[in-house]
Amino acid sequence: MGLLTIIRKVKRKEKEMRIFMVGLDNAGKTTIVKRINGEDTSKISPTLGFNIKTMQYNSFRLNIWDIGGQKTLRSYWRNYYEQTDGMVWVVDCSDFRRLDDCRQELHGLLKEEKLMGASLLILANKQDIKGAIQPEELAEVLQLEVMDSSRHWKIVACSAVTGEGLLAGFDWLVSDIASRIYMLD
Amino acid sequence: MTTQALSPALEKKRAKKEERLQSHYDTYLNDATARRSLAAASSDPSESVDAFLASFSHSRDQVEDKLSSILSRKASKSDDAGVESIREELKSLQLEIGNMETLVANSSFYLPTYSIQSSQTSILKLKEEVEAVTAELLPKKKFSFRSKGAKPAKDTEKTKETQPAVAVAVSDSKPSIPVPSFYGIKDQHDCTLVRYSQDLEDREFMLTNLTNCKVYLKGKCRALYVNKLRNCQVYTGPVTASVLIDDVEGSTLMLASQQIRIHSTKNTDFYLRVRSRPIVEYTSSVRFAPYAFHYPGIEDALQAANLQEETGEWENVDDFRWLRAVQSPNWSILPPDERVSVDHKDVSEKTRKPNS
């Protein structure tokens, strides 16, 4: 009990959350982070490595680890699993061709022991594009029902370009993590 | 003098004393032997660990032998004594096992813990074996209550159990991905294809499985996915979000976009105008040059997509498979005298020198 209590106390004092943000390349992860932080999103290069963004969200400090999604980088994802409170999986809903790929990578992550306790927010991005897959369909394609009872998760439609849905998603994630970590005594 | 005078009396005393000691010793000896013999008599000969183990293993072997003989007789069907005799024998085996249990229980106060546990486990094993043989050889025909409600309940439980298994099985195979709106050009060869802004509709556009084709996209689209091209020329207007290219060989692509990702591509020339650093991955022998596509109205389209100015990012290529300071061997800059410029006004291409 000792160590866990200490960790909880430290975290509660700082009110910090570590959020791990992944997805296939071209999903819009960096654009989402920049958008919620109110930065320019027109000159974003594909992420080589990772970006860490620390931002104040309500009364919490979010450390968002935005990890590059290129195929070459996916094997490095596991270096970032440690102490993750919340996980954001970003999906390019206009890219039908790689939904299969997307599902496999996601299910690989769900099996990771270090991510077992993390809340999962799935952002169905690029809803501004005509013909984008709807979140209900996406949930089916990604076979999210498999983890129904074992994890806190939610799927939210969003657009990094218009900013729609981003706040709703992060609101849910932050309040879910908060209810797990900070209100538990 | 006095000693001599006293000596007969003393002598007597000493003799008496010695006699008394002797008798004490004798009674002590007698008592000891008596006690020893008493103890020997009272101790049960079976009250020794060795004796217990011997008798236990003997009865265990007997039970096992009988079991195997029953089984073999049943298997060979040489014995037609029938079910009844087998039932009798099995009953006697169960009795025997019961006796073994009481033996262990009675001996438990002097047995070491290990022996108690091991004998209990072997009894358990024997019981299970007997039960298994009983179940196998003597089918139950006895009456039992069966509620009708229980069966459907069991069925639903079964389906519940199998459903996740099905889901897992599905996840191994390819699920049916709904492709409600394929939008683009696919499965073409040896042709020239032109799409105008009203076709592009400001949405995502896909080019897939094309061979020996010329493709002109004269308008603005939202996102572009390029997949499986062989020996093609592709010239596009501005793409407002991103371009994703996968599996292209021996082609020329002219693209303007905010982000460009190039995967698994070989021997291809790219003419780019891009607002961020283009990237390549699993790619070799690709060359880069600045964008040079013209058609009437492209300036407005580029303006609308915020791509009107050349930022020079086309040459800042990141190779994700070459994370070193030295130039990646997988890509190079296309020499200026080999570059082309395409003007689709008259669907004609002309090669020209830059600055001329």
Automatic annotation (TrEMBL), chain A:
Mg(2+) binds at residues 30, 47. Keywords: GTP-binding, Lipoprotein, Magnesium, Metal-binding, Myristate, Nucleotide-binding. GO terms for molecular function: GTP binding; GTPase activity; metal ion binding. GTP binds at residues 23-30, 69, 125-128. It comes from the Eukaryota. The keyword Metal-binding applies. Pfam families: Arf (PF00025). Gene3D superfamilies: P-loop containing nucleotide triphosphate hydrolases. Belongs to the small GTPase superfamily. Arf family. This is ADP-ribosylation factor-like protein 2. It comes from Ceratodon purpureus (Fire moss).
Automatic annotation (TrEMBL), chain B:
The keyword Chaperone applies. One of its GO terms (cellular component) is cytoplasm. Residues 1-24, 337-356 are annotated as: Disordered. Residues 10-23 have a biased composition (Basic and acidic residues). Gene3D superfamilies: 2.160.20.70, Tubulin Binding Cofactor C, N-terminal domain. Pfam families: TBCC, TBCC_N. GO terms for molecular function: tubulin binding. It is found in: Cytoplasm. It comes from the Eukaryota. Residues 164-322 form the C-CAP/cofactor C-like domain. Keywords: Acetylation, Chaperone, Coiled coil, Cytoplasm. GO terms for biological process: post-chaperonin tubulin folding pathway; tubulin complex assembly. Residues 83-136 form a coiled coil. PANTHER family: TUBULIN FOLDING COFACTOR C (PTHR15139), TUBULIN-SPECIFIC CHAPERONE C (PTHR15139:SF0). Belongs to the TBCC family. Supercomplex made of cofactors A to E. Cofactors A and D function by capturing and stabilizing tubulin in a quasi-native conformation. Cofactor E binds to the cofactor D-tubulin complex; interaction with cofactor C then causes the release of tubulin polypeptides that are committed to the native state. This is C-CAP/cofactor C-like domain-containing protein. It comes from Ceratodon purpureus. The lineage of its organism: Eukaryota, Viridiplantae, Streptophyta, Embryophyta, Bryophyta.
